[in-house]
Amino acid sequence: MAAAAAGAALLLVSACSSLTWDQKVEELRKIGERGADAHYVLLTQNKQPTNDECTANYRLLGDGTPVDSYGSVSIEWRDLHQSYFVDSCVSGKPRVPNTRPSDTPTSSAPASVSPSAKP
To answer: Can you give the pTM of this predicted structure?
Structure first.
C-alpha cells in the first residue's frame, strides 16, 4: 500500500508543472526538512504536532509552493507539497521522495538467488 502511494506521489510530481524532475524532488526534500523542523518548534511551544497543528503551520508559510515557469501552481502540486510538510511535521522526520537511482538497470525482473548448499 505504501509503495503504491509513493508511486502515485511520484507520478503527481512528474505531471504537476514545468519544473524539472530534479527541481521537484529538491523542493519536496526542502519542504520535508522544514516540516521536520516545525515538529520540534511546536514541541518547544508545548504544542502537539498534530495533523491540524502542522497544517496550520504550513499555512503560516504563506503560499510557499514552488511555481512553474508560467507563475502558476497546480492543485495536485500544492497538495503534494503540503503533504510532505505536514507528514514531516507530525512525525518529526523529513519525508523523503522515493527516487530511482540513476545507475540501476531498468529491468523489473528480480535477481535470482541460489539456495545455500547444506554441508
So the answer is: 0.67
Strand ranges in 4-56 using DSSP code E only, listed in sequence order: none
Q: What is the 3-state secondary structure (H, E, C) of 43-106?
A: HHCCCCCCHHHHHHHHHHCCCCCCCCCCCCCCHHHHHHHHHHHHHHHHHCCCCCCCCCCCCCCC
The conformation of residue 2, written as its DSSP 8-state character, comes to: H
Quick check: 107 and 76 in contact, CB under 8 A?
no
User: H or E stretch including 23?
Assistant: helix 21-44
Comparing C-alpha atoms, which of 64, 71, 69, 40 is closest to residue 53? 40
Residue 15 host element (H or E): helix 2-15
d(CA 83, CA 79): 6
pLDDT in tens, 21-47: 788 899 999 999 999 999 999 999 999
DSSP label of 117: P
CA distance 53 to 86: 9
